[in-house]
Amino acid sequence: MKNNNFKKITRLIFGLVFAFVLIYYVFRNVNFGEVLILIKGIKFEFLIPAVLIVLFLIPYRGLRWFEYLNIIKYKPKKSSVIKLYGSGVFLNLTLFANVGDLFRLVESKKLGMNRSRVLSTIYFERLFDLILMFSLMLLTLPFAGFFDKQIQNLILIISVLVILLVSGAFFIIFAEKFGKKIIKILFNLPFIKNYEKKLEDMYDELVFGFKLFWNKKIFLIFLMSLSLWMMESLVFYFVCKSLSMNTTFLFAVFMTISANLFFAIPISPSGLGLVDSYLQIVLSQLFLPELATAVILVYRSMKLIGEIGTSFMLFTLRQLESQ
Question: Are the CB atoms for 30 and 289 separated by under 8 Å?
Answer without folding.
Answer: yes
